[in-house]
Amino acid sequence: MWQTAPDLIDIRFHSTRGEMDMCGHVTIAAVAALRDTGRVSVGTYRQRGLAGTIGVTLAADGLISMTQPVPDTETCAISIDEVATLIGLSQCRILELNVARASLRHLFVEAESVAALGAIKRDDKALFAFCAAHRIDTLGLWAFMGSGTGSANLQLRDLCHGVGDPEEAASGTTNAALAGLLHKSGRIDPDGNGRVVVTAEQGVEMGRPSRVTTELVCRGGAISELRVGGQVRKLLTGTYFLSGI
Predict the structure, then answer these.
(1) Which residue of 13, 77, 137, 232 pairs with 104 in a disulfide if CB–CB is 3.0 to 4.6 A?
(2) What is the pTM of this model?
(3) Arch. (CATH architecture) of 72-230
């Protein structure tokens, strides 16, 4: 990444399989790194990458959030039977499949319960092949934990074989796309001000628990603003030395 202007961050994202248009949790971590080295402070910045330019806000309480595009939904031609085999669950424990695309293309798999998420057994080799064949970037496996007017809670597992990583402990783009999908399908209810906050627990099964918050603002029944973010905890610091450049 490069801070090309005081309010502009240019960034490129790479995985083990190639370059990605967008990566939400890396966006949040990048702003935290710039904050920790004194190059940004509380305020709003622009981040420019292959998926376009988004707004990233650093709040006084340390929360870092970013704007995301409203996802488009697609007809899902994938069968529950095929997905059940890939993740080691019986078909009866999968409630629904949906495909949504924003910065990345996601297959969302609604499980009957949080317990079902814990019972998943990934077939990584088959999942890599499946994602390549169906052009799926991530499989978002999720279950409701509760919802009410203006809020919803869920648990998520994000299998990212399509971008080269079997599972992520926190996923901004996936959480934003799921929240947008839930609103479009009438599964979450905004409050009187048109606002709804979706809180997702993720990474629990990996032993790396994360909490990701997505906020939607709705006007006239449609999403007018979609933001996702969270707090950052530093796990590693160091220096790269590049030779021959």
Answers:
(1) 137
(2) 0.89
(3) Roll (3.10)
The pair of structure tokens assigned to 173 is 């783009």
**How far apart are alpha carbons 35 and 42 in whole angstroms?**
9
59: left (phi over 0), alpha (psi -120 to 50) or beta: beta
Domain ranges of the chain: 2-61, 72-230
Closest CA to 31 of 12, 21, 44, 20: 44
* pLDDT for the residue 208: 93
Distance of CA 130 to the CA centre of its chain: 20
What are the pLDDT digits (tens) for 154-163? Answer: 999 999 999 9
Three-state DSSP string of 221-237: CEEEEEEEEECCCCCCC
At 106-122, the pLDDT tens digits run 999 999 999 999 999 99
Place of tokens 């999908």: 181
For residue 49, report the phi and psi dihedrals to the nearest 5 degrees. -145, -165
**41 DSSP 8-state letter:** -
- CATH dotted code for 2-61: 3.10.310.10
Structure tokens at 39: 């190059």
With contact defined as beta carbons under 8 Å apart, do 101 and 162 qualify?
Answer: no
